[in-house]
Amino acid sequence: MNRQIVTEFLHLKKHLAGKNFDDDDEVQEEVMTWCKGQAADFYDSGIKKLVPRLNKCLNNAGQYVEK
User: Fold this and answer.
1) Is residue 8, in this structure, part of any structural domain at all?
2) Total domain count for the chain?
């Protein structure tokens, strides 16, 4: 998984830490509730970080790029 995506969802990981779920449906419901509860700037900042990194990769012919 892309390191940027993992970084963006550390907040979700912290939110889910220590919680127990009986099945996948409960996990999905909790994740959806968390996502819907995030402020728009949470997503906006993530997208703004992603665009320059994607451009860097595209300008390097799709090769792996370090930070």
Assistant:
1) yes
2) 1
Rounded Cα distance between 49 and 52, Å, is: 6
* Residue among 59, 55, 54 at smallest CA distance from 4: 54
Distance CA 31, CA 13 (A): 10
State the pTM of this model.
0.55
Could you tell me if residue 67 is inside a domain? no
Over residues 24-63, the pLDDT tens digits come to 999 999 999 988 888 887 778 878 888 887 888 888 876 6
Instruction: Name the residue range of residue 15's domain.
Output: 3-58
